[in-house]
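Sample intake sheet
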Amino acid sequence: MATKRRELTAAELDAAKALQQIWSAKKDELHLTQGRVAQICGWSNESAFGAYLHARVPLNTEAVLRLAKILKVHPIEIMPEIAELLPLANPETDVAPVVYPKEDLELLRVMNRVTDKQKNDARRTLEKYAENNQAVIDELIARQNLPRKAA
């Protein structure tokens, strides 16, 4: 009798979804197949990778590290909570890796799927937006420092 697998947690499902998005964005660029990934990872066949990719089994730390290296992404892009497990290269000089909110990681994933021109256009738009917002903030601060008019 086959044993029923446990339900994956929300974090495990999020990691599988992140892996799926990264895989979709990177496989052609890196000329990868599921079979090739399994071979590089030392897994018996492509179904091992497919089980992670399609959330049939939860990603473990070792799999995340291997897949991140193959897909040329930081492991926290796949599983943000792994950051606390990653050692610093030099604890005296390095800072801990930044754990980005899911929304920021999604923005990075989107940016990885667009052309360089589209990235540059988006970057210029965001810089202009930040510049305009800073001008408004500076003006509001300056107005607060003005003397009040006599009644």
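Comment: The chain has a mean pLDDT of 82. The domain at 1-88 is CATH 1.10.260.40 (434 Repressor (Amino-terminal Domain)).
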